[in-house]
Amino acid sequence: MTMTATPVQAPAIHVQGLHKSYKIVHVLRGVDFDVATGSIFALLGSNGAGKTTIVRILSTLLKADAGAASVNGFDVATQAPDVRESISLTGQFAAVDEILSGRENLVLIARLRHLEDPGTIADDLLRRFALTDAAARRVATYSGGMRRRLDIAMSLIGNPPVIFLDEPTTGLDPQGRLEVWQTIKELAGHGTTVLLTTQYLDEAEQLADQIAILHEGRIIVNGTLAELKQLLPPAKVEYVEKQPTLEDVFLAIVGDNGPDESASTGTDE
Amino acid sequence: MNTHFFGDTAVLTGRSLKHVTRSLDTIITTAVTPIAMMLLFVYVLGGAINTGSDSYVTYLLPGILLITIASGIAYTAYRLFLDLQGGIFERFHSMPIARSSVLWAHVLTSLVANLISLLVVVLVALLMGFRSGASVLAWLAVAGILILFTLALTWLAVIVGLSAKTVDGASAFSYPLIFLPFISSAFVPTATMPGPVRWFAENQPVTSIVNTIRDLFTSQPVGSDIWIALAWCVGILIVAYVFAMITYRRKIA
């Protein structure tokens, strides 16, 4: 899946020996991993495993107790402003301004990134994320899926080379999930490095070039899906009646396009 | 990174001012309680209060203005708290902006919103018979003191907004501040109060500020009150700012 054909590059994200405690809770106990430029890296773990803590450290919102981390070649502790220039964070809950309209939210971020022509940037993203019709409406009136799309659209402004997505599909309906997946694939297709956290195994399976499982403060497994599968005994053949899942049924009945907000993020399957 | 401080602050202030202009109820609720108090005291209780001044509404207005500010800054804490809760505070902090502009935007918005509320209250007072022969310079002095007082309480509100655990907590802190003018020279002369209350009333910040503004409104010499008032405002401002910064650094550490 990795698009880059360039000779061996420094990893986009490099994490080594990361420790973090909150008071007496030792959340991270020596986390190490690298993320190759232009790849999708999934950090998998149950609630409370420390996924968000890692994302917050990498996005300069939190300081690690020990260890080193760099993003796009910049140290998160000593070169925080350069790191912030290189990243975008989409947090666990859509961090959008409810009182502003969708377009105003995008313009706001474009202006804070000191870009030329924020209006055009906003209009392009509204089109790309099928939000043009809702552009002038207050975000408070948006559905969960629309909010998440706007949230991700805001993160793309300025084309940061590295994007953090903290549980991007939590709380979304099946269509919303597929839309977000499609967007993430497109991002990586354009060379953006994506680090996403998730508690959904199928999400990691669908999207990630590399999967790491975080458990009790350490990365216990790290590899491609194929490598992870080899950790178990070879597949044996079983005959199981193939029933459609409820998700299959749901998507078949309502179709891939939501009735109100219309459309995926633009690309045909 | 501070090359963008003014630009970023302007952009973010524009954003939170939209929060104010799109929920004008916050301006109205800020102004409504002080106005109701003013009506109550002027038309119900005021007749029985002997302040020795010609117009009770003129006597009362300075204290009412301070109550307006005390209730207005509760919204500053509330808006800041919501930004923290909603994650947009973290989004801004993960972006290449001058980080302190996030707080300054709330402070400037608080200033603008309170000045609008104050203007509304003064207009109602004018309808109720408030008259002042104050010179332009005296009006500027009044505005200056009110701005200083607003800034001082706003930084207090920033501490609360940053450390509150619930929405109610983020706004409840303003009640004691709203109550403070009652135990001051704002409604009745302190000379009528019993010993310890009188001592408190005469030595708490509101009295010196109220007396100064009242003297400026009525073109009386302000005496030493103005220096005590300024000392209180600047003192609270500095202490609140320092603690707000400590709270902020702890928050983002």
Please summarize what this structure is:
The complex is a heterodimer of chains A (269) and B (253). With 269 residues, chain A is an alpha/beta fold. Chain A has helices at 51-58, 80-86, 102-112, 118-128, 144-156, 174-189, 201-207, 225-230, 246-254, and strands spanning 13-22, 25-35, 40-44, 66-71, 74-75, 87-90, 162-166, 193-198, 210-215, 218-223.
Description:
The complex is a heterodimer of chains A (269) and B (253). Chain A has 269 residues and is an alpha/beta fold. Chain A has a single domain, classed as P-loop containing nucleotide triphosphate hydrolases (Rossmann fold), CATH 3.40.50. Helix content of chain A is 33%, strand content 23%. Chain A contains 9 helices and 10 strands. Chain A has helices at residues 51-58, 80-86, 102-112, 118-128, 144-156, 174-189, 201-207, 225-230, 246-254, and strands spanning 13-22, 25-35, 40-44, 66-71, 74-75, 87-90, 162-166, 193-198, 210-215, 218-223. A 6-stranded mixed beta sheet of chain A has the order 6-7-8-3-9-10, with helices on both faces. Chain A has a 4-stranded antiparallel beta sheet with strand order 2-1-4-5, covered by helices on one side. In chain A, helix 3 (102-112) packs across helix 4, helix 3 packs parallel to helix 5 (144-156) and helix 5 packs parallel to helix 6. Chain B is an all-alpha fold and 253 residues long. Chain B has one domain. Chain B has 11 helices and no strands. The A-B interface holds A 56, 59-63, 81, 84-85, 87-89, 91-100, 104, 108-109, 111-114, 154 and B 1, 4, 7-8, 11-12, 15, 18-19, 22-23, 86-88, 90-97, 252-253.
Question: Can you summarize the main beta sheet of chain A?
Answer: 6 strands, mixed
Count of separate DSSP helical elements of chain A: 9
Series of H and E elements of chain B: HHHHHHHHHHH
**How far do the termini of chain A sit from each other?**
17 Å
Average pLDDT rating of chain B: 89
- The total beta strand count of chain B reads 0
Secondary-structure class of chain A: alpha/beta
Structural classification of chain B: mainly alpha
Number of strands of chain A: 10
Largest contact between chains: A-B, 30 and 24 residues
**What's the mean pLDDT score of chain A?**
85
Architecture of chain A in CATH?
3-Layer(aba) Sandwich
